[in-house]
Amino acid sequence: MIGVRTCIGCRGTAGKAELVRLVWNPGTGTVVVDGSHVMPGRGCYLHPGCAAAVVKRRAVARALRRPVDGSQVARLLGVPD
Ligand SMILES: [Zn+2]
Asked: Who surrounds ion ligand 1 at CB < 5 A?
């Protein structure tokens, strides 16, 4: 189906509008939230409610295949690390 993405936290699928998109920013070496789903580069998606699981499992680093700083992602998603 068009527009359906897999959440990296629970592996469930949902429409893009229901998911938060994260993108690796090579300029700063950090992960950023792509609020309008338009930024270039490798991205990943998660349910807002799966943020804690994503941080705990370090799923962003695996999904983006980058040396993601887990603490930075935790702050970005508002999860205590
Ligand atoms: Zn999820």
From this structure: 7, 9-10, 47, 50
Q: Are 21 and 43 in contact (CB under 8 A)?
A: yes
Whole-structure pTM value: 0.92
**Sequence spans of domains, the chain:** 4-77
Class of domain 4-77: alpha beta
Name the band, by pLDDT with cuts 50, 70 and 90, for residue 3.
confident
For residues 76 and 66, give the distance between their C-alpha atoms in angstroms, rounded to a whole number. Answer: 16
What distance in angstroms lies between residue 79's CA and the mean position of ligand 1's atoms?
Answer: 15
